[in-house]
Amino acid sequence: MAPEKILITGANGQIGTVLAKALSEKHGSDRILTTDLRPATHALLPFAALDILDADRLEWLIREHGITTIYHLAAILSAKGEQDPALAWQVNMDGWFNVLEPARKYGLKVFFPSTIAVFGDHIPREGTPQHVPLQPTTVYGISKVGGELLGAYYHANYGVDVRSLRYPGIIGYESLPGGGTTDYAVEIFHHALAEQRYTCFLSAETRLPMMYMADAVRATLMLMEAPSENIRVRTAYNIAGMSFSPEEIAAAIQKHIPDFQITYSPDFRQKIAESWPASIDDTEARQDWGWRPMYDLEAMTEDMIKHLSITA
Ligand code: NAD
Ligand code: SER
Questions:
Q1: Which terminus of the chain has a smaller tally of CB atoms within 10 A, N or C?
Q2: Dihedral of CA 141/265/128/242: which sign?
Q3: What is the per-residue pLDDT across 188-206, written as a single tens digit (0 to 9) for each?
């Protein structure tokens, strides 16, 4: 079988920065083509500028570089999406369609990152199961439900190997988040180290599903490498890492930085957070391709502080 040649969209974002590195370590940097609207300031991997709404340029890049696999990360996230719903709809829906069409034409394998934002009304908030009504209340969530269904449609009707995860809020030290509701859980570490205080835009007790970046990257690689017959969910798999509230992560940080103080000033993102689950049931991911998270709140906090202290 010919070696994979991987194109990553939205590669300069929070997840793409780290996933691209992991993929290049696995496959070799000459097997990776990172793309985004603008180049990263410190691009280390092959890069091509790409607006995901430019379908012709994407198809040209696929042909020119002999692409076999796409990790489609480009999107507008929840908070930014509520501020510009038209842009979120266009980038998240049209952009995904622009990936699926050449995937059908050239037989590509595709990764689509979905999210806990697909959940909304009429669900159990604790241990939210894989199969529940999907009635999100944000344009981001609505576009990701549409994206999941469109991916499953291309799989069922055209045999496209589409694989997807519903990421929780992702926390990492190597990159900054780009406009989501869970961004506070990254910001809090930077503020704790720089000034020992943080004003959180969610209320103290708002519990959300979260995951350390190392686990998110590992889950993505595990899913993409699993035998096709193991992938029984072609919309998107629930995956869980940990769940915590702002007051719980603040307490975990205080074990390392005793002077750290948190205050609360909830804004429009509070309503978004309240529409999402507090915790996720990921039984099917565990059964189908062996998913297990490695980081809980304490392990993640220790690792974040260790790495950010070195770079501070
Ligand atoms: P991010 O906002 O950090 O990065 C998104 C990237 O997409 C940015 O670099 C941006 O420049 C790029 N982009 C935006 N519009 C574009 C366009 N028109 N053409 C090309 N590129 C464009 O997001 P992220 O956190 O890295 O998320 C990556 C994916 O994972 C997204 O699909 C997101 O919905 C999903 N996801 C993320 C999280 C999380 O907590 N980070 C959670 C659930 C799902
Ligand atoms: N972390 C993302 C957000 O807050 C969830 O997809 O938008």
A1: N
A2: positive
A3: 999 999 999 999 999 999 9
